[in-house]
Amino acid sequence: MRPYEKIFYYNIHDLVKIRTNLSKDIRLPSVFLVDNVDNVDIELYVDKSKVNTSGLIPIGLRIFYDENTFIHKCKFFLDVHLEVREEAGRMIIRFNPLYKIFRKPIDYFFAFLQMKLLDKGFSFIHAACVAKDGICLLFPAFSDTGKTTTALRFLESGYSLLGDDMVITDGRNVLSYPLSVAQKVIMPFETVPLLRKLKWFKMINPPIEEKATPQKIFLLRIGEKDEIREANKEDLVKKLNIIMESSCPLFPFPQGVMLSYYFVKNIDIRTYIEKREKIIWRLVNNCEAWIVVAKESSNFYRLIKEVID
Prior knowledge:
The chain has 309 residues and is of the alpha+beta class. Helices cover 26% and strands 31% of the residues. The chain has helices at residues 99-102, 105-119, 147-156, 233-247, 255-264, 269-285, 300-308; strands spanning 8-12, 16-20, 33-34, 42-46, 57-60, 63-65, 69-73, 81-87, 90-95, 123-125, 127-132, 135-140, 160-163, 167-169, 174-175, 181-186, 200-204, 211-212, 216-222, 227-230, 288-294. The strands form 4 sheets. A 9-stranded mixed beta sheet has the order 3-1-2-4-9-8-7-6-5, covered by helices on one side. The protein has a 6-stranded mixed beta sheet with strand order 13-11-12-19-21-20, sandwiched between helices. A 4-stranded antiparallel beta sheet has the order 10-14-15-18. Strand 8 and strand 9 (90-95) form a beta hairpin. The longest helix is centred in the C-terminal third of the chain and has 17 residues, at 269-285.
């Protein structure tokens, strides 16, 4: 079978259903793979189809649109394009292989996926999450702070995983989003600034909890000393919003493409930002909240255990 001929279906907690011919680098957990789905919400394809912009309205940035179609041709001298269409309530996203070289279409797909979730009262949270005996802990943080390292320590203590990088929440419960968990085996150049990101990993398959009610949030930060303190909830909400726009942006870089889509579709993006903030507020208000600062990511587990034990 040639690349991109096979079709994959994902059902994310019956909230968003996806049809795609991509199997790699799509950031969709394999636990959501199913044989088929009804009422697809988003279709995502990479193929070599051509696009025709005749009859469409140009608005600059090599973007063309009409009532149902949005096309971005990012290079005038090459056929490098992204097409977004809406048909019977479905969003259909297509791009050709060259487009992946110059842009990050999966980031655009994730922005649309977030909008679908927000329309249904849910949001991604950039956090690791574990649960055991009815106790659910969330560890939000920027990338490369130590979410996975901390989650792995709790898994060794008998906890189940909901996600080591992202989970889904309506502010009351957390739903799993378990991407493949990579356990760091060795960092041979950890003390060399330009080489410290070179790591060796092995993949593990921890027990997965599908749904849990969170009780405690621990915002993880690297700092000059080890400490844990109660969080100001208003400040925590602000920080979580910033983390979300950094890791799961509604305005993925380069921002002109998504902003142009919102512009031509007359989407008030503030409504989505407000929906996300409302969910985050509900989540924070339903939990005890803590700030955890550590000199090394391996220290987060010990500091958190001091609070929960």
